[in-house]
Design a protein that fits this description.
Keywords: Membrane, Transmembrane, Transmembrane helix. With 167 residues, the protein is α+β, with helices and mostly antiparallel strands. It has three helices and eight strands, in the order E-E-H-H-E-E-E-E-E-E-H.
Length: 167
């Protein structure tokens, strides 16, 4: 059975004004606010009524959910890079929670394999990412995100560069 939702609405002679964008299952809280408003309206000596509702927890909950889902989708991505000199092809397959993507380029379009560096918020921590530069100027990221481990990523760059230079 569906639970009832209660919403506080201010009735004026010309319109109905919702005092919140959504209802709640707690009628008691809505009744308390309605009583406060009615007492204020019926007391000519009162000049100010302040009722505060803090609904940030809902924003935190929804925002946190999307951050976690986004991180899982990004971190669970599998990237397979295939260099095939026999057919002069670079094939990049990305598999993740949100689907699969396959991109192909001729090997002779690759002009450079490089190691990009970045840091966040003036941090002393430097993050690294392996990148292929194409003759069109397009940069193809071979990792789903930047991370630590310069030596390991530099080794990947060196091996790719050596492979591509062998003809």
């Amino acid at each position: 059975m569906r639970q009832p939702h209660y919403q506080l609405i201010l009735l004026t002679p010309t319109e109905k004004i919702a005092l919140s964008h959504y209802g709640t299952m707690s009628r008691e809280k809505q009744d308390i606010m309605a009583d406060q408003i009615n007492i204020f309206l019926n007391d000519p000596h009162e000049s100010l009524l302040v009722i505060e509702r803090d609904n940030r927890w809902l924003s935190y909950l929804i925002g946190g959910f999307f951050i976690i889902v986004g991180l899982l989708a990004q971190l669970s991505q599998i990237i397979t890079v295939t260099f095939d000199k026999a057919v002069d092809s670079l094939k990049i397959e990305r598999q993740g929670l949100l689907g699969n993507e396959v991109v192909e380029h001729p090997l002779d379009e690759i002009v450079e394999v490089k190691l990009n560096t970045s840091s966040y918020f003036n941090s002393k921590t430097i993050l690294y990412q392996v990148v292929l530069v194409l003759s069109s100027g397009e940069n193809i990221l071979l990792t789903s995100n930047s991370s630590l481990g310069k030596a390991r990523k530099q080794k990947i760059v060196d091996e790719m560069t050596n492979f591509l230079s062998e003809t």
